[in-house]
Design goal:
Number of domains: 1
Structural class: alpha/beta
Radius of gyration: 20 Å
Strand content: 5-15%
Amino acid sequence: MYNCLWEVSDAVIATASLDFNFVQGDRVWRRQTAQGLKSSRKTPFDNVLGAIDGTAVQQEQPLAVDVPCVADYYSRKGFYAFNTQEVCNAQYEGIWMSCKSRGSCHDSAAFTSPDLGAMLMNSRDATTMRLIYAGYSFDGDAAYVAGEAMAVPCPGGGGGNRWQDSYSYFQSSCRVHIEEAFGTLVWRWVVFWRPLRVPLLRRPSLIRACLKFHNYFRRYACAEEALAPFEMDSVGGSVYFCENDSAQPFERGRRRDLERSHLRGRWTDRLEELGVLRPGVDAMY
């Protein structure tokens, strides 16, 4: 059975047609991807290339003979895991992923370890400079470091400024795609419902193969209409927070006000110029 599993997994990873379609220099692809995120969430931002986040893929405790330090794989969620980073588009397809980091690794550190993260965080990189010049960026949550190519929420929800509050709302609206993509991926594959028990060196390739199959199903099963209307996303939904998800009073947070990024300011100024406020906010406020 395992031989069949690895043969299929290796074949999926080696199939060129299933490769992730993150094309950095293709202007047509960048424009179509950004327009897809804008139209799907009805936001005024037309320059978002993808939503990024990390998920902890639960795994069985690694053996001491397989890893230098077993404790490095123990995540803050209370189980052993791989920190898997992914960027998705408006169709919930993964356009880039990395599964190189241990479970204890923070999302921002896990993202900057691969080539893409290191490139986007380096404003002097040639590709990053072209993206910044064209006005494109990626959406991440508060775990990521703000940059000229990485949009993150405003500190403190905007601090009472209605335009910063509107920016955080629309930025979060674009970013919710990756949360839904992770949910679909987990519920599609039963292998993620319990800790991975396959050999340690095979676990990242299994995760990658599942994500590529997920892209295939999203691409061909949802070509005509979406599975659910976006306007009804909040109906029947619920939110659950683990006890160790929230920050403690003694924990030290990132100084968002000291991050050198003008992207957030430009987006906020753009909203004020257009006069676009988040839903439920009175224009005369």
